[in-house]
Specification:
about 25% strand; 6-stranded mixed beta sheet; 13 strands; alpha/beta; about 270 residues
Length: about 270
C-alpha cells in the first residue's frame, strides 16, 4: 500500500485547520514512507461510515463512537490521545458568561446544544451526570439540537443560538477543581466567553483507529510513528489545533471498560 486516507472531524473546519491537517498528514507520510491524505468528514457518524466503506483508512474518533457504532465494530485502536500529560479528560456543560443560568436546576426549559448522540463529553456523560443530580435529561430541556462538532456547539452557545452546551474540557492536572486549560468555547467567538455549570467524571481520551482491512504492517508502523510524533516540532501546532492533542500513547483495552459500563448504564436507564 502506498496511500492512506486519514479522516477526522475537527472542531473548526476552515482553511487554516485544513492546512494544518494537510501538514500533519505530510509529516506522517514522510515518517512512515506512505502518501497520507486528509479527509474531513461532515460528522462523527459520517466518518465511521467512510471508515467502514474503505474510503478512510485511519480515523480520529471518540472511544464512545468506537463502542456504539456498528461501522466501527471491526476497527483496530492504534493509539490514544495525550492532553496535558494525561489520557483522560472531562465533559462540561457550559453557558455564556452573561447567562442567567447559575446551576443545573436553572436548565429547566433551556435549549441544549450537543455534539452527537455518540459523543462522550458532548452528550452521554453530561446526561448521566444530570441524572446523578436528580434531574431527568429526557424532560429537563425545552429543546435539544445536535451540531456535529465541539466547535459548532461552542459557537451555538456563544452566539445565542442555544442556552447551554456540552463539550470536552481539560483541567490542570486533570482535576476539574483546578483551572481550566483547554475547551472549545475559550476562543470560539471573539469577545465572548463561556462559564462552566458542571463537569462530568473523567472520560478516556480520543483514539486513532484503523479499518479492519488495513495492512497489519501499516497499522504497526502508524502506531509507532504516532507515538513519537510529539518529538517533531513541526507536528506540535497541527496536533493541538486540529486534534486538540499534545501527542499519543499506546492503547490499553482496559481503559475502555469504565466507559463501556457507563454506556450500558445509560442505555438501560433510557438516557442515551
Amino acid at each position: 500500500m502506498t496511500r492512506v486516507v486519514f479522516g477526522c472531524v475537527p472542531d473548526t473546519d476552515d482553511d487554516v485547520t485544513r492546512g494544518l491537517l494537510q501538514k500533519l498528514c505530510s509529516i506522517l507520510g514522510a515518517a512512515v514512507g506512505l502518501s497520507v491524505e486528509p479527509r474531513v468528514a461532515a460528522s462523527p457518524q459520517a466518518l465511521a461510515e467512510e471508515l467502514a466503506a474503505g474510503q478512510v483508512d485511519v480515523a480520529w474518533t471518540s472511544p464512545t463512537l468506537l463502542l456504539t457504532s456498528n461501522e466501527l465494530r471491526a476497527a483496530t485502536p492504534l493509539v490514544c490521545s495525550v492532553r496535558g500529560g494525561m489520557t483522560l479528560y472531562h465533559g462540561v456543560v457550559f453557558v455564556r458568561e452573561s447567562s442567567p443560568y447559575k446551576s443545573t436546576v436553572d436548565l429547566k426549559g433551556a435549549h441544549a446544544a450537543w455534539v452527537s448522540e455518540t459523543s462522550a463529553s458532548g452528550y452521554i456523560f453530561a446526561r448521566l451526570a444530570l441524572a446523578s443530580y436528580g434531574l431527568d435529561p429526557r424532560s429537563l430541556f425545552g429543546s435539544e439540537t445536535f451540531h456535529g462538532s465541539h466547535g459548532n456547539v461552542a459557537r451555538a452557545v456563544l452566539t445565542g443560538q442555544a442556552d447551554a452546551g456540552g463539550v470536552y474540557a481539560m483541567f490542570q492536572d486533570g482535576n476539574p477543581m483546578r483551572p481550566l486549560v483547554r475547551a472549545p468555547f475559550m476562543d470560539a467567538v471573539k469577545g465572548e466567553r463561556g462559564r462552566i455549570l458542571f463537569a462530568t467524571p473523567a472520560i478516556p481520551a480520543d483514539l486513532i483507529v484503523a479499518r479492519a482491512g488495513l495492512d497489519p504492517k501499516t497499522k504497526t508502523d502508524l502506531a509507532d510513528i504516532l507515538g513519537q510524533l510529539h518529538h517533531n516540532r513541526d507536528a506540535v501546532e497541527p496536533l493541538q489545533r486540529v486534534l486538540g492533542a499534545d501527542g499519543f500513547a499506546p492503547f490499553d483495552p482496559r481503559s475502555l471498560e469504565p466507559l463501556r459500563e457507563q454506556v450500558q448504564s445509560g442505555r438501560e436507564l433510557g438516557l442515551i
